[in-house]
Amino acid sequence: MNLNKIFILGRLTRDPEQRTMPNGRAISNFGMATNRIWTNQESGEKQEQVEFHNVVAFGKLAEICNQYLTKGQLTLIEGRIQTRSWEDQSGNKRYRTEIVAENMQMGPRPGGVRSEEVSEVPETVEEVQIEESNEEAEEKTKGKKAKKPAKGGSASGEIDVKDIPF
Predict the structure, then answer these.
(1) What distance in Å separates the CA atoms of residue 82 and residue 34, rounded to the nearest whole number?
(2) Looking at the DSSP assignment, which residues form a beta bridge with residue 95?
(3) Predicted confidence (pLDDT) per residue in 95-146, tens digit
């Protein structure tokens, strides 16, 4: 059995370019860069090596890549390696090795999230539920007498762990 599978996590070096094949299927090409950092054993200096990859996506994935990916964005691509060959106008044989994308995951947006956006979003779902239930409780108790808490309970509706029958 053979396996041709690749995962790369890197940044786009250019915006995706979308074209349409003669059969009407979308195709998108873009470049990605990945790097490797290591410490040189002789000098103790950190070294970096950058690799550039050509990525091609087809169909719906190509449309999604073209719509959402931008230069500099961190992206994870899952796919396979393919080498194409053709003859150029002067008769020379040319080769191009590329990654045919089968799956894509976008990383965080370039520039991050603005603080105005974060302040409007509740931290957890529980906060929203608690706020709603408190508002509902206030509306129900307006103009009514507060009920006595059940044995061992409290007026605020909190449940004491000792009251749970297990």
Answers:
(1) 18
(2) 85
(3) 999 999 999 999 886 565 544 444 444 444 444 444 444 454 455 455 544 4
| Its pTM surpasses 0.70 | no
Contacts with 118 (C-beta within 8 Å, 6 or more apart), sequence order: none
In this structure, whether the domain defined by 6-106 belongs to CATH 2.40.50.140 is answered with yes
Do 28 and 62 meet the contact criterion of CB atoms below 8 Å apart?
A: yes
What letter would DSSP give residue 69? Answer: -
Supply φ then ψ for residue 99, to 5 degrees: -100, 120
Assign 42 to helix, strand or coil.
Answer: coil
| Bridge partner list, 27 | 19, 58
Contacts 24+ apart (CB under 8 A), 77-80: 77/6, 77/7, 77/8, 77/9, 77/32, 77/101, 77/103, 77/104, 78/5, 78/6, 78/7, 78/102, 78/103, 78/104, 79/5, 79/6, 79/55, 79/103, 80/4, 80/5, 80/6
Domain positions in the chain? 6-106
b/e 1-20 (16+ beta carbons within 10 angstroms → b): eeeeeeebebbbbebbebee
